[in-house]
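Subject: Sanity check before I submit

Could someone independently write out the structure tokens for this chain? I want to compare against mine line by line before I put it in a report. The sequence has 134 residues.
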Amino acid sequence: MEITDTSPADIQQVRVAADGSKASLYIGGIDYSRVVSGYTIHQLAGQTADLVIQFAKGRTSPDFDGCARVAVGVPYEPGPAAAHFLSAIDAGLLEKAALARPDLDGGPHGFTKAVLAQLQQWARGEFDQAQEMS
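---
Independent answer below. Compare away.
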């Protein structure tokens, strides 16, 4: 999730009252309960709380009444990150790695499955096979 940020000067008074199935959320004395479907409160001892509100389905947490830096959560879109990752792939190395995979089968779409499995492995940061081939 991408988070919008506010400066420390934008600390707002926050009041959350949760009754288990429903929560009321007030920021600066204004009721935002109808437009907020989820929120997260994070606070380290001795520091101002951080409140992230979401305009998507979410869960509620226990009651909170205090000051917090307020940020709006924006659902994460993986497209740009995937495009960036794929643009860095060496096609020759990918082909060699896919052909060397022990799970490459000879069935229909076997090579495509191996390529996708290899890309998933690299996306997780598992580069052992790529280092062995270079």
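---
OP: Matches mine. For the report I'm noting this point. The beta strands are 2-3, 12-18, 23-27, 30-31, 38-42, 49-54, 64-74.
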